[in-house]
Amino acid sequence: MSTALRLTQQEVDPIGGVAASRLVLTGSILSAATSIGLTAWHWDEVGSPLAAFAGVLFVVAAGAVASVSALPARAPFTVDRLWFVVALAVGGAIAEYVSTVGADRYLYDNYGPLVVGVLILSLAPFSTWISLLAAGTVAAAVLAILAVGSSGGSATQANAAALVAVNSVAVLALSAAGAAYSATIVRESLAWQREANAIALERDGGVRAGIVRSVQQGRVSVLSREVLPFLAGVMSAERISVADADRARELAEMLRRALKAGIESTWLDDLASSIEAARQVPIAVNDPAATAARLSSEQRPPLTALLSWLGSAERSRSIRIEVDANGSGALVRIVAVVAADAGGAAPTRRDVERFLAVARAVGVGGDLEVTRENVRVEFRYDA
Amino acid sequence: MTLGLPEHLARASLSRALASAGHAAGAVCLASAMVIAVASIVVEPIGEAGPDRTAAIAASVLIAVQAALFALAAVHPSVTLTVAYLLGGTAVVYGLTVLVMAPGNGFETTNNALLAMPRTALLLVGGAGIGSRIAIVWATLGWGLGEAATFLGAAAAGAAWAPSAAAAAGLGIVVVTRVFDAMTRSDGRRETALHRASQQTRELVIRHDYELRAIARLHDTALSHLVAIAASGSGPVDERLRTAISHDLSLIVGRDWAAEHAEDADAIGARTGSTEGMSAPGRSAAPRGAAERGADPTRTGRVGPTATVAAPGGGVPLADALGVARDAGLAVNVSGAPEVLAAVGPRRRAALEAAVAQCLMNVVRHAGVDDVEVALGRADGEVTVVVVDDGRGFDPDRVPDDRIGLRTSITGRIEQEGGRTRIWSRPGVGTTVLLAVPEGGE
């Protein structure tokens, strides 16, 4: 199965997925309003008020499940949630059919197909195009059976094929729209990622050369400039003096310390130093076992982005990072003390949730607690 | 990389995705309309007064025309084709209204399912241009033209006109999604700056890796000499120490890992300057860095011809490693087929040979023996080198933290090239190190 078949927008474009959660809420509200409005519209056709009421309840439940399931905190959205939502919405359509059975003059003013279609469409950013199409087809099949069953009370003369087409066009059209959206956005995102990877590889040589040069000017080079001439001097000398021996001891100790510091530190310490220097925000990293090194290349960027964001725009007064082993994975706890004068830049739950959503997309668990004074974020990385 | 679309691409990509969604929905509307028209031709009506078959044939032709124009506008969303579709579709909707609203079909107004389908397909044109505003303009235009055509058609057929609830709902969905997209698209992406963070992290990790390797390299080669000098006190320089320092200096300056990577950068012309200190890619035994500081270790003439970087892709197999051993007085018995090294790429070969050199250096320093076996082979897509000594041996589980030669200079180096290392050793029994790298590579 091709990669694009198995991926959703939420997986390949997590920020887009976070934004889309509000669209699901909008779709759910519209669905509920449609079911209530159209039930009132054809109330004279309703034979069973209880079934009509149940139909609306089913639609409201489907919308609620969709909205809650699509919340960033509950990411990733799974296919069983899509089927649950569709089942509830189809339940609403069936209840509507029962409520007007034998007296349904026009299929056209039934809300069933529309709400099923709208809910499937609103879940498009969270589902694969194939699952959206499958859900739409199954729902349309159920609605087709209802269409044939309700033909007795129809005001217009039409054959069964026409009735089936009329009753399933809304759900099929909206499902097809959802599937096309999902397929296109996943395809475009993957194409961009391939391009970005190719560019990154091309740039790699230049980046490495730059890093090599800057490393040469760093602590290693300073150390080597001390050690190498000393060894060369001893090598070419006839005798070793007491001063040489003392100097050798001193250099050996420096070398050990540098190596120990290098082994105990990770990219996270370097990141913290870099943000601290650029933003004047004190950042303390407590990672005695260098556990941050366990994070994979995909898992690091969300953490980097969050720390850079917390450290910018004078949002935080200070940041503390604790890293512990979690089995063979890692547990990273971040506590940012919100600056008293952060004002509009103060972190909100929704702001920070975006970073967690990206982290979740690469299999990182996360919890978040935002108060006026602090932002606490916990990332759980599995090996 | 699962970072999603960057801000500058999100607008166009989301716009195209939403246009595709509209096209798919429009196609289903037209397909359903066609199914109804064709069914009206071939299937007997349920009631007594069914639709006129001639009218149904005319309707199917009109729908086919609209579908053809729709496909053209969807595949090539230019202004010309969009306008052509809107005008052609308007004419089709007018014709369909006249046919559908003919007396006897049972429709009270134009707000019915049959006329909703072509009208909805008309507003789902997508249209030329990228962005929510232009898309809403095209959709509104399509909706307006559809309603106008229906109004005129109803007037011609003498039927009552009513706006289509389904088409209005379709327009509503288009407007809601487009407005929502415009409002939520960029802020989150700009604020999170994920792609910049990804690049930054990548550089941090590479930098840290380089620093650690560079320190480890210096540590592996220089520390024992410093300790030896510190322990020796004042007195003449021991000749073995002098030889060992000479070797290690050439190795440090002449074959640094960081320098190996800098070679890649050289290849793309990115390298511009500094080659002092620990970086001297491909440099020979005479360590320029040291020479520049007025302390040329080659003055003593003890540096052998071994410090040239292991010739990538050619040269004498294991020349460097064998040079290390020879200068240290270690006899190396090579067995197997040294030419198997030609099966790996230049960089991978250089890494493998450097790891073998480090193994031999460890034998010289720690094993306390005068000879060592080196066996080369090739099997299962891998080139393997085994270094065996009968020396002191050690407990691999109890290697002190500050002895990172094995971990970094041998294992790390081989793993960097996608290979693997196995070490068997016991105190008093000797040590066997297996280095295996996949064939090919850079």
What is the strand and helix layout of this fold?
The complex is a heterodimer of chains A (383) and B (442).
Chain A: H1 3-6, H2 9-12, H3 14-41, H4 49-69, H5 79-100, H6 112-122, H7 129-149, H8 160-216, H9 219-236, E1 239-240, H10 242-264, H11 267-279, E2 283-286, H12 300-311, E3 316-326, E4 329-338, H13 349-361, E5 365-370, E6 374-381
Parallel strand pairs in A: 2-3
Antiparallel strand pairs in A: 3-4, 4-6, 5-6
Helix pairs in contact in A: 3-4, 3-6, 3-13, 4-5, 5-6, 5-7, 6-7, 6-8, 7-8, 9-10, 11-12, 12-13
Chain B: H1 7-42, H2 53-75, H3 79-100, H4 113-123, H5 132-157, H6 165-184, H7 186-192, H8 194-232, E1 235-236, H9 239-254, H10 257-267, H11 288-292, H12 319-327, E2 331-336, H13 346-367, E3 371-379, E4 382-389, H14 405-416, E5 420-426, E6 430-438
Parallel strand pairs in B: 2-3
Antiparallel strand pairs in B: 3-4, 4-6, 5-6
Helix pairs in contact in B: 1-2, 1-4, 1-6, 1-7, 2-3, 3-4, 3-5, 4-5, 4-6, 5-6, 8-9, 12-13, 13-14
Walk me through the structure:
With 383 residues, chain A is an alpha+beta fold. Helix content of chain A is 64%, strand content 11%. Chain A has 13 helices and six strands. Chain A has a five-stranded mixed β-sheet with strand order 2-3-4-6-5, covered by helices on one side. In chain A, a hairpin with a 3-residue loop joins strand 5 and strand 6. Chain A is elongated, with a radius of gyration of 31 Å. With 442 residues, chain B is of the alpha+beta class. Chain B folds into three domains: 186 residues; 109 residues, no CATH class; 131 residues, 2-Layer Sandwich (Heat Shock Protein 90). Chain B has a five-stranded mixed β-sheet with strand order 2-3-4-6-5, covered by helices on one side. In chain B, strand 3 and strand 4 form a beta hairpin. Classes of the chains: A alpha+beta (383), B alpha+beta (442). Chains A and B meet through helix 3, helix 6, helix 8, helix 9 and strand 1 of A and helix 1, helix 4, helix 6, helix 7 and helix 8 of B.
